[in-house]
Amino acid sequence: MNTDRPLGAGLLALGVAGIAIASQISVRTFNDDPGPKLFPIFACTILVICGLGLLLTRPTEQGRRMDPAALVRGLTMAGLMLFYALALWLVGFYVASVTAVFGFYWIIAGPERRVWWRGLIYALAVTGGVHLLFKTALNAYLPQGILF
After folding, report:
1. Which residue, of 65, 89, 118, is where some domain finishes?
2. Looking at beta carbons, which pairs linking 3-6 to residues 24 or more positions away fall under 8 Å?
3. CA separation for the pair 145, 31 (Å, rounded)
4. Alpha-carbon distance 131 to 1, whole Å?
5. Do 53 and 76 have their domain in common?
6. pLDDT grade for 35, boundaries at 50, 70 and 90
7. Which of 65, 80, 102 is the last residue of a domain?
8. Residue-range definition of the domain harbouring residue 39
9. Are residues 144 and 89 in the same domain?
10. pLDDT band, very low/low/confident/very high, at 32 (cuts 50, 70, 90)
11. CA–CA separation, 124 vs 121, rounded Å?
12. CA nearest neighbour of 106 among 76, 83, 130
C-alpha cells in the first residue's frame, strides 16, 4: 500500500486546521511580540506545502513499504515531542530543550553512530542558538517552568 496520499491528506488537513486555530489567537503583549500567532501559522503553512507535495506527486509503481523500525522511530519521536511540551511547562525552555534535542539526536543517529558527547554538543548548540535568536535578537519570552 502506498502511504504517500493518506499521509499527504493528513498533513494538509492538519495544516489547514492549525492555520484556522492559530488565526483565532489574540494575545496582546507590550512589545508586539509576533510569536503567539505568526510562528504557528508559519509551521502549519509548511505542513500544508508538504501535504500538497505528497498529494500532487505521482506514485511509483512499487510504492514504499512501511519499515517497522522506521515506524517505531517515528512513534518514539512523536512521544518525545509530547515529552518536550510537558517538560517546557514543568521545567522551562533550557532544561527541556537540551533534553529533547539530545533525545532527537539519539533517535536519529541510530545505534551505529551514537556518541553521547556529540549529542550533548548538538543539544547545547541548538538550545544556545534558539536562545540567541529568540531571547536576544527578537526579545521574545522563552517558557519558564513551574518547578524551577
Report:
1. 65
2. 3/63, 3/64, 3/66, 4/54, 4/57, 4/59, 4/64, 5/54, 5/55, 5/59
3. 22
4. 43
5. no
6. low
7. 65
8. 1-65
9. yes
10. low
11. 5
12. 76
pLDDT in tens, 42-101: 889 999 999 999 888 887 666 666 678 888 888 899 999 999 999 998 999 999 999 999
Cell matching residue 62: 512499487
Q: 96-139: per-residue pLDDT in tens?
A: 999 999 999 999 998 889 899 999 999 999 999 999 988 888 77
Q: Is 41 exposed, middle or buried (0-12, 13-18, 19+ CB in 10 A)?
A: middle
If one counts every other C-beta atom within 10 angstroms of the C-beta of residue 54, the result is: 19
For residue 35, what is its C-alpha cell? 510569536
User: Which residue carries 509576533 as its cell?
Assistant: 34
Q: Are residues 73 and 131 in the same domain?
A: yes
Rounded Cα distance, 148 and 117, in Å:
26
